[in-house]
Amino acid sequence: MKNTLDRGLVDKALEFASERHKGQLDDQGRPYFFAHVVQVYGILIDVSDDTEILCAGLLHDVLEDTDTTYEELRNVFTPNIAEIVKMVTHNEHSKVFPNLNPTDEYNVLFHKAVLVKFADRLSNLSRMESWSDSKRREYINSSIFWKTGNAS
Fold first, then answer.
1. Beta bridge partners of 25
2. Tell me: the pLDDT tens digits for 121-134?
3. I want to staple 57 with a disulfide (CB 3.0 to 4.6 A). Which of 44, 112, 118, 147 is the partner?
């Protein structure tokens, strides 16, 4: 069944992410929300009209970079959106979808999470000119490992 775009929910995610990332700056001193979050959304809107993907793209860093909780995302948005955001959230245990076994019942959400994660990585790679050589190498290597599923 084709997902119908819920513009109201996407707008809600846009406002939520903007508020949660308020005051955060990227490596170049630019507002993080505009420099990265909106760029990820722009990548996703070009390839999808899926409400869950677009919302998760806007929210993809709120668990990692703000005091937002998974439970809050489930309550404010939907369980599926919260789960996709959780799937793409980096934690200290793994760099590859740390909260998901891709063979389980989350298969559809997993595919949505992959799209969000690729948009995130693409946005990060486009901003790497300000990074040190070692940070560039580390990020590119982690991107290669992430893609192949061999990240630790």
1. 31
2. 888 777 777 777 78
3. 44
